Automatic annotation (TrEMBL):
Superkingdom as given in the UniProt entry: Bacteria
Residues of the signal peptide: 1-29
Keywords: Coiled coil, Signal
Pfam families, per the entry: ALF (PF03752)
Annotated coiled-coil segments of the chain: 489-597
Protein name: Methyl-accepting transducer domain-containing protein
InterPro entries with a match to the protein in the record: DUF312_ALF
Amino acid sequence: MRRSALRLALTAVLGLALTGTVVTVPAHAVPKPAAVVASTVDWTEEEADWYRDSVADIALYAAEPEVRAAAEAALAARTDQAVADFVETGWAKARLAATQRKTRDKNQVKTWATSGGTNVKKAANLALAGGDYAISEFVAYGYEIADRLDHPVGDTAVERERIYQRVELMITIGGPTVVAEGSTALASGDAAVIADFYSVGYAAANRTDWDNRERVRIAIEQRNQTLDDLTAGASAAAAGARARAEIIAANIDGLRYLEDALLAMRQAAAAANAAEQVFEQDRVLRPSGGRGRTALLEAHKADAIAQADRASRTALQMNAVLARVQVAANDLTESGQAHGQDWAQVTVSVGFSAQAAAHAAATASAAVTATLADSLALDADQNATLRANNAARWLAETRHQEKVAADQALVARQQQKIAEAAAKRAKDQRGIAEAAATDARGHADNAKKLRAEAQRASDNAVAQAQIASAAQIEANDAVQRESGAIDRLNRAGEELSAATNRCYAAEEEYNAVTAALAKARAEAEAAGQDADEATRDLKIQADRARDAFHAAQAWADRARAAADAARDEAEKAGAAAKQARNAAKAAQQNALTARRASDKAGQAAVGSVHAAELARVDAERVQDEAIAAVREAGQAIVQADIAGNASGSAAALAQLTIDRAGTAAYIATRFAAVNADARAALTVSSEALVLAQEQSAAAAKRATEAEAAAAHANAQARDAVDDIKPAYESVARAVDSAKVAIGAANKAYEAAVAATNDANNATTAAQSATRWELVAQREAGVADNAAQTASLAAAGAGRASASIDRAYAWAKTATAGIHTQAKKLADALKGIQDEKARQDAILREQQEFEDRVEEGILNYLKCQVAMADACKKLWNLVQPHLRTALDASKNHIALLADCYTGDKAACDEAQANGDKVQEFFIQTGAGLVEGAKNLVKGLKSLADCGSWIVVGFSGDYFKENCGKTVEGFRQMPAMLRDHPLELIHITEWRENPGKAFGLTLFDVGSFALPGVGQVSGALTKTVGALSNLLRLSVTKISSGLGRIERFAVRVADVPGAPTGRIAKITGAGLRLENGVAKFDEAIALIDDKVYRVDSTTARLDGPAGGFEGSVVHFDGGLISIENGIVKIRDLVLKPGHDVDLPETPPTCRVLAAARAAAMAAIPCNGTQPDGSWYNIENDIPLTLNRADNEAADAALEAARRVEAGVPGGPRSLTFRIQELLQKVPGATREGHAFRLKGADSLKRKLAGDRKNKPDLTPAELVDGIGDNIRYTALFEGTRYIAGVQDSVRVLKAQGYELVKVKNGWAGGMGNYRGLNLTWRDGETGHLFELQFHTPDSFWINKAEHYFFELTRLPKTDGKVGELELTQKAAEEISVGMWSHVTPPPGAADLNLPLGR
């Protein structure tokens, strides 16, 4: 009775709640009145469900918010008692509260209708006319909107916040549509969207909720009416039959729905379990920074929700089945029939089991939601932690940059002080330099005056020397005439003696002898007359030469005095200039110090500013990371709420599952023994019960974990936010430091500018002083040349004349000695009968003659003590060639002796041999004359140059004529010391020993004269030799660069090594920088051993600006050898005089130039007009025909394209190889500048190959070249083998094919040590070479290449190359160089398979 009363009451409440009127209750549902309603609820499950569903309808659709709130509270309590209390008393209280509110609202609206503004009054009257709903809506939000129309408010933050709060209130009291649309508006975060919902959207949404309530009310009325109609129109019998049929049909449908619900539950459970498995797998990776696989979890969630929705739809369908069964069971009961009730009970158990399965599926869905939310919360926590850590890291970096800025500011202040001090010193040095420049000019003026005086004296001395030399030439003619006369006289005496001796043998020839004696006496008288005449002429010329010599000597003394005075002034000018240069150098050094300090201060300022900027950026990063951490923490909180809500839903659904499963099990248990459907229901309910409990527990666990993650993320976010302030405080301090640094840098710059100006002024003064120094030196040099010319003229003429006199006196004496000694021998032999004694006497006389001759020559060849070695070398060379003449003379003595003893045949042979002896000495005289003439030519050349020297060393005449002569005279002493055998007329000795003897006598005699400067009659040859030596020792500076191919430097003496060693330096590539000359790579040849030259610096002999465009050479220097490396110190780079550079063929340029070169004596190097190729290397010509040359050019062009890459085609091969080598540990790339083989290098190789392979076609000849593109990789010895193997593996992995291996470590490449691999590029098919070296083998390969090139030239026995080496010597040097390379362990045994 109580249950019926409650149901009646609830029906009434529902009707009133929805419409304000009582809904008609179906007749069969109306209970009888009850006087007392018990306080204890005793509902069946069906009844409880009905009441809860009804109260839920009230909570959703009741018109008054007070009633909805009371219904929601009753449902939230989750007890039947609360629902019953609501039905019994709660609804009445809620209605009363609603009525009271409505009364208050109505009175308030009435007040507004009379007291409000225009819009408020209008809207209030409309609300009063619309009834309770309109009034409540006007109070809730309408009045506020109308009032804003009467009193507009701007779009301010305060107004937006107020609207936001109002919308939140609307959601709180609104229906489902209001809640949904209002929540969407708030979630957008867009103030305009929220305001639109507030002013417009809420009214529409609220109207929708009201209309929905109306439709529910109508549906309830229709349902009740239908129940009445069915009950009233059924008869008992028909009802029973229909009821059973309906029960059976419902049972069939229920079983189908049960299966669907079971399947959906299991699939939902599978999705939940899969999500849990993914979550746990992700957990393992989280400590290492892993994140959850959100997409996969969302997929499982969607699957679980879909299955839960499917199960829910099945449950709803099952509700209809249950309703049908209940109705049919009631009908069956009312019809008085019991048969079929068991089926109804089983069907009910099936339905409750299906509902339990649906609730369990929903529980699984909620668990998946919780799992996903937990994963996202953990992700957010990790992200927040990462952001917080980043914030802390950027804070530390900000503080580091603050310190950097402060340190740089300190550096800037220190450099400011350095710059200011250097500027002060530069100013002081400027004053010193300017004073010294003034002194230098005064000394230069004095030197100029003295130079003019020296030149006048020199001109006079040269004129007198020419007079003396001309007289000497004429005197030589007289000497020859006198010598001839004496010879005839001696011959007559010989004939007379021979005739006299013969007369003893044949008395009958007396008359003939008498006639011969008369003839000899007549010839002697004639010869005496000729000798007297020649002697008189000789005396005249001797007196003339002697007077000229004395006059020349006097002028020479005056010239020397003036030159010495000019040199003294030049030295004083030099001292002043040196002082100026030193001051300028010191000023420039101080300016450089100031500039460097300024640069460092500027760099420090830039560094400080940069650090401050970095600090600001880092601080912003701190702030960004903190904001991101807060955002992640918020996300964690949201996900924790989602997980909590899902956990609550899962718990509620699990409870519903328990309720439904328990009821189903209670009913099915009674029929399970006999009914399979009941057993099925029992099984499903049990499975649903277990699943719901498991998933509820899992959801609770995920919610707890998500909440902890949110708390941790929130803490991390707070820590990150706390880092923002100290970060920006560090920025402020860094900025202050940057300001200090900038100020110091500006002051340092000002000091540097001042120092630079003073240094430049000092340099200008020093340059001026240097110019005056050069003027003074030039004037002194001209004066020296004038004095030297005068000395050469005087001393050369006098000594040359004396030399000729002594030579002829000796020759005459020697000739007369021949006859005298022969006569003595004949007298001595008259009484000697013993033949042995006779021969001994002959030998003694011959030796006596030889000793006298040699003594005479040696006395004549007296040399200065300092030149003893040169004289010894000279005598060793001359002596063999004199042997012929001496032997002939000695033989002549023996013949004359025999002749004197009566041997007629000997007399005839002596006559012929005497002619040879006489011819030798006649040619000796000719050589002396020619030597004298050459000396006169040299003196004349010097005299002609005198007037040009005054103008300077830049005139064309001086370049073409005087420059070589003057330089030759200056270099002559060194030439005589270093190359004495080059000046002794080797050719003449072979062809005409007599003439060569005369030339040599004159040359050596002139060399030995003190003060003469050791100038010889071989002047022209000497100058030419000097020019050849100088050709490769000079270079012309262009853009601060040059290259000296060969120069010599003295090697410092060391114990145990020969003294006076000279090193030949080759391949010095010059560069001028910072006021000095430098070269880094060169090689030295010392005692046929090659050394590497260390980086060398040479002092510039003059201002740096004056070297551009000048021809320069090295001077001085001293070599020491340390640890196998040559070090050069005290080297000076001097601007030189013009020297003929080697006649290197010009490079062929364009066609016109090629034609011109083809017609020239020296063809051009390169491609010729006919398309062939010509090149001279080390004096050896190399050629290719046109076809071979074109094939070489095509191969080079193909290599260039592959190396550089083709747009739209394969990338640059160089870039690709570099990228691959970067992947190999320990690899160092070298030789990038030489990655392409040069045209001449390739063609030289082809020219050599063509000689060995004449039958190959041009294409075949070129195809054999695999190194047109070549790269080099270096590995240290311990890493070499692994590095090579790694490189090969990397290249093969990228498709490169290894086609050839040449292992120099195994001895298969001559002297070369290294590994050369030829590869084929997979993209282009082009061959290239990759060389593998150690650091030592790489350097030796570069240094030894010159000698390798010499050995590769066509074979010759002569000397080749600039170092003038034989190919054998070059080979020995190459072997010696490579012997210093240690092979890496295992390199010789490397096995590298060909292919990919």
